[in-house]
Design goal:
Glycerol-3-phosphate (1)-acyltransferase; 6 helices; alpha/beta; globular; 30% helix; single chain
Length: 202
């Protein structure tokens, strides 16, 4: 994060929620750029948050790749559905046993213009099956995409990236699809974007 200060960029983190410690949390966030990850690692560190990320990120990125590879994350191969499911299942089990938390980007890929892509519920549903006591906490990320709107070089200057923790969602017995839709629409509302339509349950 501090390396961005060299180009005049800043990160503002806001958390007005009273989140429990010692209880697993699933942080659900929109995804705009690679610069989303460092502030989430840093500001959520007391919740022992582990990431669900694509396996390609475990190589070639200083600090972040090491964290993903050895820190307990679920590193999924998007070309191998079975491997992806098993990685998420194992993370859910670690969350339950160790009271860890997880960060997931349900869009599945980055939004290059800040517009939220439809959320996918499968990963969160799998985590909840293994760790049903987890609290769902939406996080909205703003302006991260603008830092790299010209690509990773040159990095855009004088952009304030914002990260805000939104109101937690108790899962109860509500279907995962409905929970994820609620989280998605809360994030969309915080960004001033139109709500998503309900999912078709098949």
């Amino acid at each position: 994060m501090r390396s961005l200060y060299l180009s005049g960029n800043t990160t503002k983190f806001t958390n007005n929620q009273h989140l429990p410690e010692g209880r697993p949390i699933i942080f659900i966030s929109n995804h705009q750029s690679m610069f989303d990850i460092p502030p989430l690692i840093w500001y959520l560190r007391k919740y022992h948050a582990k990431f669900i990320s694509k396996i390609e990120l475990t190589h070639g990125i200083p600090s972040i790749s090491f964290n993903l590879k050895y820190g307990g994350a679920a590193n999924i191969d998007r070309k191998d559905q079975r491997q992806s499911i098993m990685e998420i299942v194992k993370l859910g089990q670690r969350m339950k046993e160790n009271k860890w938390s997880a960060v997931i980007f349900p869009e599945g890929t980055r939004s290059k213009n800040g517009k939220v892509k439809p959320f996918r519920a499968a990963g969160i549903a799998t985590l909840l099956k293994k760790c049903p006591d987890a609290l769902l906490v939406p996080i909205v990320i703003k302006n991260s995409w603008a830092v790299i709107k010209y690509g990773y070089y040159p990095v855009n200057a004088f952009t304030q990236m914002q990260v805000e923790v939104l109101t937690p969602i108790e899962p109860g017995k509500t279907p995962a699809e409905e929970l994820v839709l609620t989280a998605e629409n809360n994030i969309r509302a915080a960004l001033g974007q139109a709500a998503a339509k309900p999912y078709e349950v098949k």
